[in-house]
Design goal:
Layout (H helix, E strand, L loop, with lengths): L8 E4 L12 E4 L8 E5 L4 E4 L15 E2 L15 E2 L1 E2 L7 E2 L2 H26 L6 H14 L3 H8 L8 H5 L2 H17 L6 H17 L1 E2 L9 E4 L7 E2 L5 E6 L2 E6 L8 E4 L8 H8 L9 H4 L4 H6 L15 H5 L10 H13 L8 H20 L8 H13 L5 H19 L6 H23 L2 H4 L3 H9 L2 H19 L5 H14 L5 H12 L4 H20 L1 H9 L11
Parallel strand pairs: 5-6, 11-14
Antiparallel strand pairs: 1-2, 2-14, 3-13, 4-10, 7-8, 9-10, 12-13
The structure holds S-adenosylmethionine.
The site of S-adenosylmethionine has 19 residues, from helix 6 and strand 11.
Length: about 575
């Protein structure tokens, strides 16, 4: 029996003449506009936090919290987070409340609880590596006769396993053998070779069909497997994407989808150069022949053909002609050189600790590799954006450097993200905007007290912030975040909730009704003459000026020349 699917989608079982290995696919039974919700999946077969965070994440709803203070490792320092209480029997699985604990007990924990007692007695640990726990859960649910798990893992038309494909990679297969054996032993099911073979097959099915559930807010990962969602095939130019909200996966349209069209998502980071994408897809055992792979398109070329460039008229890159005809110089770097740059960049080993000098030296080496792309002004081509992003992330929380993170974040939101992620409602684009808002609020305090110049030697940066209306900038950015967040994210996405409440606070500030009215008019109609002029002059211009400092700041910090020079713009 095929998995139960929500309305709006169906499974296509037709043979793909050009791709016999593709087997089934998910097809839209109605049209979907960009950003709209195609389907939600809230009853997964497997939903696990990753091994290391199973003591700090509710094992049922996957909400991140802090550990019970009675537990051996304590839970201090995270007051705002939900306090989690451990199962009194195994003391390994933790929950945010009794409802979650009961639901997890019914779903699987009554069967796996003893396993954790066994783990503690045998190896003294109170957690298991994620794949081992996932396989063990499936095995004990199969043993317990769970119908949905049997259907997915034992029926002939169940989940794709690709066992022979995995066997071809010796190292991967050795790893699978170890993990499958551990799962069988810990589950208390070591009954012979047949059970071990079953465990290996289960692991192959999990590897092929489960999502790495990355929580965009906390960075926590885990495994999420739903038999219906697992029917979506891959494309490097997908028309849909999956977001996670605790125990629910939401499938959303990224591009317009017509009735009868196949729905595709990207299994990997589809912004990487072609050979890196193919390397990442190796474990799915198929040759991707999407337009990006077929014509070896870079991010700018994919952006140029995107059907939703126009959505950026309400964004930080409203100059649509730039998205249609990007100001880059392809003669400075070939595709083959980009592939080599990426491989060398990836091969550099990051320093182990937090030593500032070592981290800066590492960033310098990475930046040096990016130089041909920088000269071509191909800022949106990896590894340039990730190199800048990593530096911005570090500087944001650095007492000495946080002011310098602001131009970097403005640069990412204007020169990188819109080309990489053309749809402005993609959560990563919204997060980029929210990061700018937070830094504007922080630097605003220093501007008001006149202390900014003591923190930052870049006169252009200090001058721009001194003359800009940071409150209006924040309000405009919040309106962008709330508008696009309401299209492409769950209503109770923390980032969206936070943006909404910050916007309410700003709107209620006395004495700036005029500015607020203009921005409200612009948000209602980005072509409203007065509102648009206000946004252009008071928001976009300072954001672009701040962004324009990023290349020189990066150059001077990372090119082994002098420190940031004092410059008046
Ligand atoms: C998560 S499953 C997707 C559902 C799968 N088609 C099925 O019938 O079970 C992933 C597997 O589907 C196949 N697949 C996914 N995308 C594909 C594509 N673009 N071309 C060919 N095969 C693909 C590969 O075998 C891959 O390992």
């Amino acid at each position: 029996m095929p998995p139960h699917l929500p309305p709006g989608i169906r499974i296509n079982h037709d043979h793909h003449p050009t791709h016999p290995g593709k087997r089934r696919s998910l097809v839209a039974t109605q049209s979907f506009s960009p950003g709209s919700q195609i389907a939600t999946f809230s009853n997964p077969l497997i939903a696990l936090p990753d091994g290391a965070s199973m003591r700090t994440t509710c094992n049922y709803c996957l909400r991140v919290g802090s550990q019970d203070t009675d537990s051996p490792n304590g839970g201090g320092g995270q007051q705002q987070q939900q306090q989690l209480r451990a199962c009194t029997a195994c003391k390994a699985a933790v929950y945010c409340n009794a409802t979650c604990q009961r639901a997890h007990w019914r779903a699987v924990h009554k069967l796996e609880c003893k396993m954790f007692t066994r783990v503690r007695e045998n190896v003294g640990k109170d957690w298991l590596p994620t794949p081992v726990r996932a396989v063990a859960q499936v095995l004990i649910l199969l043993k317990g006769g769970d119908a949905a798990v049997k259907e997915a893992f034992e029926a002939e038309d169940g989940l794709e396993a690709n066992v022979e494909g995995f066997k071809a990679y010796e190292e991967v297969w050795k790893d699978f053998e170890l993990q499958a054996t551990a799962a069988v032993v810990y589950a208390g099911l070591l009954e012979g070779e047949e059970m071990l073979a079953k465990a290996r097959e289960v692991l192959c099915k999990i590897q092929t069909n489960a999502f790495n559930r990355l929580d965009a807010d906390t960075g926590m990962t885990g495994i999420f497997l739903d038999a219906g969602l697992a029917m979506v095939n891959h494309s490097c130019v997908p028309n849909a994407f999956v977001g996670f909200d605790k125990r629910t996966a939401v499938l959303r349209a990224e591009r317009p989808i017509q009735e009868g069209e196949e729905i595709t998502i990207s299994y990997i980071d589809n912004m990487l150069p072609t050979s890196a994408r193919h390397e990442a897809l190796k474990l799915y055992h198929f040759q991707c022949d999407c337009p990006r792979c077929w014509d070896d398109l870079d991010v700018y070329e994919v952006c140029q053909t995107s059907p939703h460039i126009h959505l950026n008229s309400f964004s930080l890159q409203p100059d649509l002609s730039k998205l249609q005809d990007p100001p880059i110089d392809r003669s400075k770097v070939t595709r083959a050189e980009i592939e080599i740059i990426y491989k060398k960049w990836q091969a550099l080993t990051p320093p182990q600790g937090d030593d500032e000098e070592e981290l800066l030296e590492f960033a310098r080496k990475r930046w040096e590799l990016c130089r041909p792309l920088v000269e071509a002004r191909m800022w949106a081509v990896e590894p340039v954006p990730t190199t800048i992003n990593q530096l911005a992330n570090r500087w944001q929380t650095s007492y000495k450097m946080f002011v310098y993170a602001l131009p970097l974040l403005c640069f990412l939101s204007t020169e990188c993200d819109p080309f990489k992620l053309v749809a402005p409602f993609k959560p990563w684009r919204i997060k980029g905007i929210v990061a700018i808002i937070k830094l504007l609020a922080l630097t605003g305090e220093f501007t008001a007290s006149g202390a900014l110049a003591t923190r930052c030697t870049h006169e252009g940066l200090v001058g721009t912030l001194a003359t800009a209306s940071q409150v209006s900038m924040c309000e405009a950015l919040l309106r962008l975040a709330v508008h696009h967040g309401s299209i492409g994210a769950a209503e109770d996405w923390d980032v969206l909730k936070q943006a909404k409440s910050m916007l309410e606070d700003l709107e209620s500030l006395e004495g700036r009704e005029h500015e607020s009215n203009l921005l409200r008019a612009w948000a209602k109609d980005p072509e409203d003459p007065e509102g648009a002029a206000f946004f252009e002059n008071q928001v976009l211009r300072p954001i672009n000026t701040l962004a324009s400092f990023a290349p020189e700041i990066l150059e001077e910090m990372l090119s082994r020349r002098s420190p940031v020079k004092q410059k008046q713009k």
